[in-house]
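[Q] Does anyone have a clean structure-token version of this?
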Amino acid sequence: MSTDKDGPLCRPPDGRKTLLAAAEGDENKPTGPKPVPERQVCTSPGIATLTDNTKRFKLSSSQATQESEEDMYRDAEEIEREKVLLVCGTGSSDFPENKLSVEPEVGIMDYCQKEWRGTTSQAKCIRKGYEAVSQKFISIRRVRGDNYCAVRATLFQALSQAVQLPDWLKREDMMLLPEKLMEKYGWITQWQLRQKWTSKVENLVDEIKDCLMLLKSKWKRMSEMKALAERQVACDELFRSEEDEYKLYEAVKFLMLNTAIRLYEDNEKGKEVPVFAWLLFARDTSSNPSQLMENHLNQLGHTGGLEQVEMFLLAYALQHTIQVYRLYKYNTDEFITLYPNDPEEAWPIVTLITEDDRHYNIPARVCEETSL
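[A] Here you go.
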């Protein structure tokens, strides 16, 4: 693993050395379960320090699956069924056909009162956060917690709100991207499709191309629907833990890799890059795009979800601003966080809710403003 911290990518302007040191984390910290980390969000013009929690919780893959989001967002029967499937080596597509990845709407405060009945300071803070969100949104939709939740919630919102096909999906060379990248970077042949190896490069190229074509066709179909209710029904049908859903995630992950490669190369050429790119490649586990793929993108949806710095990468890959209500940060400047923090005006906005920066749900139905 590369330890060259003085290469072009990791040589920040004056005053940002400590930023990158913080991003790498403390290898001597305990690796067992720990409280929700205190993180700082990136702000302009100088990016605030993301603390040493840019690394994943150091749990084994089985612990990460069984002891984090799933215990909070699945019932006991489903957890046990997942354990059996993991032992048998079967994938998430083996869940019941009609299992919704994004559950139907429930009232935000009804959901809050059911989930957060305690009297601890954390419970009170979360309830206050939900109360604040309820001033803007009426309902919440719970998202399946299988480490794809950030990608799932973002993509679901993007598709359900789509009014046109994005320019980056209209490009004629988009479908040639897998072949071009693999010709230039041999290490991409180690890409894992849903944690499975593909023996032949030609097969891998075709499969990723198929995923990208599916993303384009689904996005185009959604954007052609004029009624919001119609798009919502179509999204519900798409996000049922079936094969198409997970192909969409593979497409998004590959777009994230492509974006990371572009940022890395732009930086090496001396071009200006977003500050989050310094953090992304300052980590010991992702000092270059190859390590990012091996240790993060290949593991996404299996042993881990998206870290905060990777939320920026997701936003740039889809060219959408991701607005997140971070409930445990209620009554602070970080309660509402934007990824990126200085978004392009033309980018559509999707909104998510998180209680802990690990699992993401979807707010629904904007409250109608009334006037006296």
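[Q] Thanks! Anything notable?
[A] The first helix runs from residue 17 to 24.
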